Amino acid sequence: MKSWWKKSLMIAVAVLTLGAISPNHTIWETLLEDKGLTKSHASANENKDYMYEWVDLSEYYDTGQNALDYFYQSSEEQAHVKFGSKIGPVIQNQFQAVVLPNIQQAIDMHLGNLGPERLNKLAISEKPAGDYSEKIFHIYDTETKKDEIRFHVRTEKKPQEGYFFNFHYHVAADHFQQHYELGDIYWSKDTPPKWLS
Prior knowledge:
Layout: H1 3-16, H2 27-31, H3 35-46, H4 64-111, H5 116-119, E1 122-124, E2 135-141, E3 147-158, E4 162-171, E5 180-186
Antiparallel strand pairs: 1-2, 2-3, 3-4, 4-5
């Protein structure tokens, strides 16, 4: 057989068998006419070390943890939008220390057991309510447009103590009836400004 024909045949078989029969496979010894060439070719390949790299497929696919991380980050951003420039600087440290970890824990508790397919269908609302409305953000299903979790903050006046911001959330499982507490942050005895101001 001609040299170029042998090489072409080896390459074609290697490609068609997806590498199961490589060019240095023993099957070629019986097909090649020049045995001396085959043995020297085989002995040269015996001394080579092969190194395999394993690829982490999670780098290429959106996993559940990526979706949860997105909700964590977006929840913090939406809260800061809600607070505005007047309330935000005053309560920011307490919010970061007390309320935000509880928001993230609530997201984990209610969404963490959903699979990546279901999580990827969820989104976070991007328009917190202003004035004295409670809505910070909702996490909702993009296909059905139904809320899964609603995160709110209510302004409460406690006698002889002053104003507090009560952070809480509601879930679809109980038709948003129950308040799940996330924490309270003290404002002052003076009436707080409106949200988004």
